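I am writing to request your help with a piece of structural work I have in hand. A protein sequence and the structure tokens that stand for its backbone fold form the material at issue. Please examine both parts with care and let me know of anything in them that strikes you as inconsistent. The record follows directly beneath this note.
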Amino acid sequence: MTALDNYDPLPDVKFVYSGFKEANVVDRDANGNEKTLFDCIGNNQLHCAALDPRVSPDNRRIAFAVLYGKAVTEGRWTIHGVLPIPVLNGVHTGQIFVFDTVTGKLSGWPRVEGVIDMHPEWINNDELVFVSTRSKVFPVRMFGKSPSYGGHHALQRWRGHADGSNAINIGPHDDVALHPLVLSDGNILTATWRVDENLHAGVTPENQYWMSLTDQFGGNETSLLGAHGTLFRQGGVTNSLVALHFYGELSNGDIATSNYYRGRHLGLGMPIAFPRLPHGVEGTGGGFLPAIYSLLPWAQEEDNPTHRDRHGRFMGKGGYPVGLPNGQVLLTKGTGYCYEGLTPDKANAEYLGGSGCDTGIYVLKSVPSAHPDDLVRVVDQPDRHEFSADVRLPYQAVYGRPMPAVQKRIDQGDCSLGIVNVHLTKLHGGGPACTKKGACIEAGYSIANLDRLAIYRAEPNRERQRSLRNFPREGQDMTLLGYVRPEADGSVNVHIPCDMPYKLRGVSRDGVEFIRDQVKHSNRPGEHRQCLGCHAGHTMDDYKPDVPGLFARTIAGSKKAVDLNAD
């Protein structure tokens, strides 16, 4: 076997904390000169991986994370047995660093053993959003599935100053949040793990990541692209939506992501993009899919080898899309077979015609690509993997503004939930499907049966899942806080405790909870969360652009928020 690079693990939705190779962060200038900002590979005193460099809007500072492990294991288990590939294991601590490109100074945040800080991203030139296990709660428990992510604490969204001070939790309901991206309008897009309410049933849990959008303080959360649809078509070819991770914004405002099957492709698959829809809308027409298009139509996202071109060459896969000026895209390309299913007897140069899978950094100058030869190579050396690059340009050069839009922090006052009409719904009658999905109505009921809403606090999991025992389908213990009855027009305005994970239940007159929230929510201090109805307004067919105005004209909207009742 000569193509061991085909089986190299890089970070992805399966290898979040460890299980991947050691890595360095490198700053490369336009002439190809490289400066190593943090050396893990050449330092035998450290077992670590330096990952995810992100450039500040003024192009002056670079933030990245270093994950520290207990050991480097010399063999990696694959479906073909243990292969001689060293991987970082037992990661216990993650530390964020900031490098000043003008002074050359490297500053590290305080390193707290047992706490993992990672995936930094610039909100402005002085503040970062990042993910962290600081809360020390465990992710949702999964019925009938193996304990999630090896027992690590939940990665939740935090915000803080570039020196690590004044950190606040802006995602207290998160189970696992990955690689937040600050969009040009100031909102934050994050890959959030959605396996609550048995949403993992029938799928591989690590593939259940949605695009979640919040403001800069974690409020007003909505979904840009969920797991409602599994297929999209382009050029007569049907493609799957699998794990949606590694996000980018193109210079025209379109959202890009890596669409791939976890753990077997070095985090690569078919990079896709789609235009932003109005806030709260996930899909066009009657469906929950936007106008998705592929950046690299010749790539593929599923558990299969890459396609061959007419000359018999493997065309490869892609990922990690980042916007460049004039609609161009910076991305990672994997050249070769790029799928762990490559059998050892074929893992040789004669069959492959080259490497098994070698990743490098390329530029896509025109969307979509017709062939891998369209891509312009930035750096792709055969003795290493280059991946997860960011562009070393001022933000102004790409997005026409000096930094993402600045949003005003409320951070005071009570929290509340406002609903225009609980009887407006995109939910459907379920039957057996309601044991697997929360976004439906239990068989025998309709939305007309809704008598009141129950508000539950989702209690934090203080102990990790250790078995496959029969957990409640919520995945954590639930505490009933109380009920609220809609007004005559179906409107609701009710106080919700701030910074507390919660769920809603629709309750009938006979006391049956026949509508169940899919996922947890939480409100930031002072936030008045508003929605149209029960999962309503998420397609262009039923989108209402003036929800705040609609709510203000309801009975509940004309009154102060009420407290929860005991019955």
Observations:
- Residues 415-558 form one domain.
- The chain has a mean pLDDT of 93.
